[in-house]
Specification:
Blueprint lengths: L7 E8 L4 H5 L6 H25 L4 E4 L1 H6 L1 H9 L3 E4 L12 H19 L5 E2 L10 H7 L4 E2 L9 E4 L6 E4 L8 H5 L13 H18 L2 E6 L1 H4 L2 H15 L4 E3 L2 H11 L4
Parallel strand pairs: 1-2, 1-8, 1-9, 2-3, 4-5, 5-7
Antiparallel strand pairs: 6-7
The chain binds zinc ion (ZN).
Length: 269
């Protein structure tokens, strides 16, 4: 199923939300709260890019348009390092109450902003809020997206049915277990303890990989520069990547490469 007959595939993804997470999801714009997002841009992201370079692996960064407008040089650096830039809404919004035209506007705006920096239209999309409207998946197909990455119905990529007409889009799943936020992210309102020990999370994340390797499956890690980018967590991330790389025949690919491979080889048909 995987490229070059690799035994399993690994997709490393980073949602570079910066301040937009706090504005869009938490509806807060206090400077001290927004500073948490800013940390992702100032400290977390550069630290992660260094780790990826040292480990010689490529990843996918899902970026809201607002974040790309605010930090164009960082987006250019991610792109120059060979990582994928993918769509993550504009201001981390929940589109559930939006009309078709309002949702279309956000998707187009995100494409235009990212394309102006990278030179290519994004081919991957991750819901900023975890909410699809009845239009979302159709809009993604209309704008030429190859894959979506917000759902959790399988360990392996699968075709996500859009409606009864037979239309579908490739889903590269994520999972809460392999997401840094539930383990590490502290918040006051709503109260979330976060602050797990990296050794506890390493135990979960490495065990997930070991079974994925045995099964010949797909391992999708989702992290946020403002969360995993803290020193002690970033150190654990690098240890995990090195551990994954110590196994033979593992394909660590950008989501766009995994999607292209699956669609071109018709692996899911
Ligand atoms: Zn996000």
């Amino acid at each position: 199923m995987w490229k070059d007959n690799a035994r399993c595939a690994v997709g490393l993804s980073f949602d570079f939300d910066a301040e937009s997470l706090w504005m869009g999801v938490y509806k807060q714009d206090y400077p001290a709260v927004l500073a948490r997002g800013e940390y992702g841009a100032r400290a977390g992201l550069p630290r992660i890019l260094k780790i990826l370079k040292r480990q010689e692996v490529k990843a996918t960064f899902f970026v809201p348009g607002y974040t790309a407008e605010k930090y164009p040089l960082l987006i250019r650096q991610i792109d120059n390092d060979g990582h994928e830039i993918a769509h993550h809404g504009y201001k981390h919004e929940n589109p559930i109450k939006y009309s078709l035209e309002e949702e279309r506007e956000i998707i187009e705006k995100g494409i235009d902003i990212l394309k102006a920096i990278t030179g290519y239209a994004p081919v991957g999309y991750r819901l900023p809020s975890g909410v699809h409207t009845p239009h979302t998946l159709n809009l993604l197909l209309e704008y030429g997206f190859k894959y979506e990455s917000s759902m959790v119905a399988d360990d392996l990529p699968y075709m996500l049915k859009i409606d009864d007409s037979g239309k579908q889009i490739l889903e590269i799943p994520f999972s809460w277990e392999l997401d840094d936020a539930p383990h590490f992210m502290f918040s006051h309102k709503p109260y979330r303890t976060g602050m797990s020990s990296p050794s506890k999370v390493y135990e979960i994340w490495s065990a997930e990989f070991e079974v994925c390797y045995q099964e010949g499956g797909y391992y999708g890690l989702t992290c946020h520069p403002q969360v995993i980018g803290r020193r002690h967590r970033a150190q654990m991330l690098e240890k995990l990547i090195a551990y994954i790389k110590s196994f033979p025949d593992v394909w660590i690919g950008r989501h766009m490469d995994i999607a292209t491979h699956i669609l071109e080889t018709k692996s899911l048909d």
